[in-house]
């Protein structure tokens, strides 16, 4: 029935036909669609942090975000030197944007401070407004664990901080595009040097294995772990060799049999 034909029907009949023409969306479906468009709530993380940037508004926003996540922000200041002076015996995370000092100097100064463990320097997250290959190469060569856009949203910034404090590396937004275009790669620890959670696979390999269990593609795994697709391929090759398998499905089956996946 065409819409114009509805005008010739009684009022009650028109109402019934209009209701039939509407396709109801179940409430759980609407909730699922809304959840798909936002990040899942993150777990609180703790520790000591500093925020270094020339813009007070940005510093205030990052400070509030970290404080809401149970972190103690020892200092938010435009100067890495001033931030370093506010640290006692431990710094877990340094968020560095546009500091008074040259970026490389600010990174060196804060990474030289005592970290959460004797052999681990503080994790550093760099916020960049403009990214070029030379600068990005220099930052990564200094061992920086995270580089993201300065204009990133608070939810993504919080997720990046959480990943860094969990021991992962983060590269997102325009820095990731520059990295891919230039053929660079965010350096990952050599498998032999990584901490092994089960005596067989490294922590990163276990992460890849878990994503295989979710039936993600290499590209999806790379995006989830904030590494390149080449790094994922390397981990997959190592997983296949250690488990004695030749395919993703065999790897998942072998992992379940060995108790690596549940």
UniProtKB/TrEMBL annotation:
Keyword Membrane among record annotations: no
Alphabetically ordered keywords of this record: DNA-binding
One Pfam family in the UniProt entry: GerE
PROSITE patterns according to UniProt: HTH_LUXR_2, RESPONSE_REGULATORY
Region Disordered, annotated ranges: 1-40
Domain HTH luxR-type positions: 194-259
Span of domain Response regulatory: 48-165
Database matches in InterPro entries: Sig_transdc_resp-reg_C-effctor (IPR016032), Sig_transdc_resp-reg_receiver (IPR001789), Tscrpt_reg_LuxR_C (IPR000792), WalR-like (IPR039420)
Ranges of biased composition (kind: Basic and acidic residues): 27-40
GO biological process, one term: phosphorelay signal transduction system
Record-level Gene Ontology MF annotations: DNA binding
Keyword DNA-binding on entry: yes
Record's protein name: DNA-binding response regulator, LuxR family
């Amino acid at each position: 029935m065409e819409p114009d034909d509805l005008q010739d029907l009684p009022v009650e009949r028109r109402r019934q036909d209009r209701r039939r023409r509407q396709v109801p969306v179940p409430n759980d479906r609407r909730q699922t669609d809304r959840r798909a468009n936002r990040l899942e709530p993150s777990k609180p993380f703790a520790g000591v942090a500093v925020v270094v940037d020339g813009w007070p508004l940005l510093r205030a926003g990052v400070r509030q975000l970290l404080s809401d996540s149970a972190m103690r922000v020892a200092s938010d200041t435009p100067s890495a030197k001033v931030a370093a002076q506010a640290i006692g015996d431990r710094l877990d995370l340094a968020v560095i944007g546009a500091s008074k000092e040259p970026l490389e100097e600010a990174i060196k100064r804060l990474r030289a401070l005592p970290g959460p463990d004797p052999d681990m320097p503080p994790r550093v997250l760099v916020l960049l407004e403009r990214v070029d290959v030379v600068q990005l190469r220099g930052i990564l060569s200094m061992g920086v664990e995270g580089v993201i856009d300065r204009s990133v949203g608070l939810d993504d910034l919080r997720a990046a901080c959480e990943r860094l404090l969990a021991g992962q590396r983060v590269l997102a937004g325009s820095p990731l595009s520059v990295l891919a275009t230039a053929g660079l790669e965010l350096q990952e620890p050599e498998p032999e040097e990584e901490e092994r959670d089960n005596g067989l696979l490294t922590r990163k390999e276990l992460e890849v294995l878990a994503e295989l269990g979710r039936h993600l593609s290499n590209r999806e795994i790379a995006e989830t772990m904030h590494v390149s697709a080449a790094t994922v391929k390397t981990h997959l090759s190592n997983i296949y060799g250690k488990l004695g398998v030749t395919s993703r499905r065999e790897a998942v089956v072998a992992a379940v049999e060995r108790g690596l996946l549940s």
